[in-house]
């Protein structure tokens, strides 16, 4: 018996503590194809939430879909389901992006490093003509790589 393969899309899901919309706007501004695809905002009847606050968003970066949300505030009905305040980002989970030009690499590196933490500064580490690892001001870890073809050009 054969079955049709199911279509699945893998997406990164990022959970923020109140600044998901700021992060989403920042990330979409850094990529040529950056685009907000969907936003769900709190309504007046959503207890604990300020009306209009982003609850859930979907955006696109470098052809990939990313999902984000804000954690439920203390007076919301979902707040007691999980220890939301304990969930944080760390460099063990990172977003990898390869850039095709030194200019694109430098622009992205500088924007992500501003207000964040540099784990490995931008340089040649032997495995790449230019590589960097940073955690941005929101705590998201990024590994930025320059295409070997770009360096040879």
UniProtKB/TrEMBL annotation:
This chain belongs to the protein called Putative 3-demethylubiquinone-9 3-methyltransferase (Glyoxalase superfamily)
Residues passing through the membrane, by range: none
Can the keyword Methyltransferase be found in this entry's annotation?
A: yes
A molecular function (GO) term: methyltransferase activity
Q: Which UniProt keywords apply?
A: Methyltransferase, Transferase, Ubiquinone
Leader sequence residues: none
- PANTHER family, per database record: PHNB-LIKE DOMAIN-CONTAINING PROTEIN (PTHR33990:SF4), PROTEIN YJDN-RELATED (PTHR33990)
Q: Which organism is it from?
A: Actinomadura livida
